[in-house]
Amino acid sequence: MVQLTLPKNSRIGKGKRHRAPSGAGRLKLFRIYRYDPEGNENPRWDEYEVKVDECGPMVLDVLIHIKNTMDSTLAFRRSCREGVCGSCAMNIGGRNTLACTHGWADVPGEACVVAPLPSQPVVKDLIPDLTLFYAQYASIEPWLHTKTPQPQAEWRQSPEDREKLDGLYECILCACCSTSCPSYWWNEERFLGPAALLHAYRWIIDSRDEATGERLDALEDPFKLYRCHTIMNCAQVCPKGLNPSKAIAEVKKLLVERIV
Questions:
Q1: Which residues contact 250 (CB under 8 A, 6 or more apart)?
Q2: Contact 50, 66 (CB under 8 A)
């Protein structure tokens, strides 16, 4: 029987335990992924006994507390702390989400496990390399394409046409959806992923855009679009409550309708 094992340098080892001082009060254990690809050590899980009474309610509050008071080497991204920028997207308790809007008390179990977004190379610790993700977003050309002369004032749009963009334009490009998609894990070099395809649909149905045919042509590919198998992980994890699967299905429908 064939036995498959992970390469030695990819196995996650046991890390350090950062203990709280005795009599510290209410504690919560946080198990955090640590890895520096520029070093010689394997990835590891470090454990932190955190005095949660000294933190805010969100996982990001805890990470900031750990970095400020327990371990200054911990690396993670963050910016707005309001669920708007998407910088602090990570896997918390097995679910892709935003650390700034996800409460640590909402994570069941003894320990809150925090890891970087799945399937992406790691820059360091909880920071994923999203170079490919952003390149795929750029590939759908997310700006208005027009052929008619630009009006002196603005491109007009009816309220009804503007309403069609609701549930699409709110995407903050946090990558939670794409990195939760098994089809993206398997084909990320060729499948555009839920986030890029949601934005593609946003421009396809924009009444002001005049390149609908060209946009559909660019997506009519066995891998770019059709690797989506409607698993729906993307809709389940989106921190903004959007449904990329529905947008992808609408693009497929438009491609079928124009053939018929």
A1: 201, 205
A2: yes
How would you classify the pairing of strands 95-98 and 89-92? antiparallel
Extract the runs of DSSP E, i.e. beta strands, from 85-212.
89-92, 95-98, 111-115, 122-124, 127-128
pTM of the model: 0.92
pLDDT digits 0-9 by tens, 126-146 = 999 999 999 999 999 999 999
Nearest to 88 by CA among 111, 70, 61: 61
pLDDT per residue as tens digits for the range 49-79:
999 999 999 999 999 999 999 999 999 999 9
The closest of 102, 236, 124 to 179, measured between CA atoms, is 236
Residue entry with tokens 């084909």: 187
Q: With bands split at pLDDT 50, 70 and 90, how would you rate the model's confidence at 210?
A: very high
* Cα dihedral 26, 81, 38, 134 sign: positive
Q: CA 221 to CA 226: how far, in whole Å? A: 7
Is pLDDT above 90 for 243? yes
pLDDT in tens, 89-103: 999 999 999 999 999
**Token representation of residue 140:** 């759908």
Q: Are the C-beta atoms of 115 and 44 separated by less than 8 Å?
A: no
Contact (CB, 8 A) for 221 and 136: no
- The H or E element spanning position 32 is strand 27-34
What spatial distance separates the first Cα and last Cα of the chain, rounded to whole Å?
Answer: 51
Neighbouring-strand partners of residue 48: 18, 30
- In 188-243, which ranges are continuous DSSP H helix? 193-204, 212-219, 233-237
